[in-house]
Amino acid sequence: MLKIGAAALALLLAGFGSAHPVFAQEQVAAADASGDAAASPEPLSADEMEVLVARIALYPDELIAVITAAALYPLQIVEAARFLDRYEKDKSLKPKESWDGSVVSLLNYPDIVKMMSDDLEWTQELGDAIAYQQKDVLVAIQQLRDEAVAKGVIKTDDKIQVVKENDNVIIKSASPDVIYVPQYPPQMFYEPDYVWEPIRYYPDPYPYYWYPGATFFAGAVTGAIWAAAVDWDDWGVWGGGWNGNDIDIDCNNCFNNRDFNGNININDVDWKNVDRSKIKIDRDQFNKFDQTNIKNRIEKNGDNAIRDRARDIKKNDKLANRVPGKTAATRDIRKSTLDGLKAKPANVTRPAKPANMQKPAAKPTANRPAAKPAKVNRPAGKPKPAAKVDNRPKKPSGLGNVNRGKATKVSSNRGHQSMGGGQRGGGGHKQIKRGGGGRQR
């Protein structure tokens, strides 16, 4: 686990620097208020957080939402990767019904599942960050997007749309049927000598995970349409059922266990017993549900807040650790799984020690000149989602502690309702305290 330096922590506790953003300071306050700081990881700094999210920062919003939700279930991610390997040989296999809808949704993106399984440390780190620093995760993503847009790295084309809404960069698919995933070296965000380059795309598009035509439609397991969205205005991630009860499908004897002709509501379908080759969906009817519509529907159900789900998972982990006779906590299972992966012939080279996600302190402007041509060795062959971060020495800025643009703006504009002390996620309508404290409204 990455640690913030003792000196930096002392300064934060002392309230040093009025311009310090949401990172660490509010997290420490929340931990102290809950009295459970010892059971929670130390917060990542702004620089560390940006390195953590660099590999997914330019992905479409809805995919970021699914990945961050699924990161809370690292054991299920490992199981899902093994399932996909077996599925290549046996197409009759079905996902486990016990898996979270986010994990089932990610089965539609096998390369991403493999990346998260192979780099389990990164997945666990992201899951912890979502549990304890959700707003910081999203602020860091927006910071990197600001830089990418300013550098011309990403822009609207025939595959994605890049727009600005309420000072936030929104990235979404240009197609209602498929998602193209950007391909880019995340090192360009944090390696000083790395030359910026425009994004490319993975060769094949992925089907929308919530679209019934997707290979592993989440409804096949959860019994309802599962979708995810990011609320950038409230710094929150949402995932779960979005109530598609006004979408009908033409089911012409599509059930394997009974005869049925005519239209049926999509939420009433038993997807475990459906022959997908026999169903028809009115594309015009289904496509009227854009991401804004879906997000609004998801947020109507308070149980879909990922911050609450993360709180409950971490709380259950701690209870399992403390109470004799209980099943081992998730973190123990994660360690066992990780040890097992390391014992196998490695497909991905791992450093002997956990990656030290420190980077040189940021300059006060998003425009960083390239000091010299990049020395980049990219392996040939099939592209993989992101890369393992490198060890980098910490080089303090000569200007002192300079904050990043997006984090500084968020900090300077925050009000009591949106960013009160001890809150995470920014939303005034909910407060989650470290260690699984109760939700406040």
Key structural traits:
two-stranded antiparallel ribbon; alpha+beta; 441 residues; disordered C terminus; globular
- Rounded to the nearest angstrom, the distance between the terminal CA atoms is 32 Å
Instruction: Extract low-pLDDT stretches.
Output: 1-25, 28-35, 322-355, 362-380, 390-402, 415-441
| Major sheet strand order | 10-9-11
What helical percentage do the residues reach? Answer: 25-40%
Descriptive notes:
This protein has 441 residues and is of the alpha+beta class. It has 16 helices and 11 strands. It has helices spanning 6-13, 25-34, 46-53, 61-70, 74-87, 101-106, 110-118, 120-132, 134-150, 219-222, 283-287, 291-299, 306-322, 330-343, 405-413, 416-419; strands at residues 160-165, 168-173, 178-179, 182-183, 200-201, 206-207, 226-231, 236-241, 248-251, 263-265, 279-281. The strands form 5 sheets. The protein has a 3-stranded antiparallel beta sheet. A two-stranded antiparallel ribbon has the order 1-2. A hairpin with a 2-residue loop joins β1 and β2 (168-173). α8 (120-132) crosses α9 (134-150) and α8 (120-132) crosses α13.
Précis, in short:
With 441 residues, the protein is an alpha+beta fold. The protein is built from 16 helices and eleven strands.
Reconstruct the topology from this structure.
Layout: H1 6-13, H2 25-34, H3 46-53, H4 61-70, H5 74-87, H6 101-106, H7 110-118, H8 120-132, H9 134-150, E1 160-165, E2 168-173, E3 178-179, E4 182-183, E5 200-201, E6 206-207, H10 219-222, E7 226-231, E8 236-241, E9 248-251, E10 263-265, E11 279-281, H11 283-287, H12 291-299, H13 306-322, H14 330-343, H15 405-413, H16 416-419
Antiparallel strand pairs: 1-2, 3-6, 4-5, 7-8, 9-10, 9-11
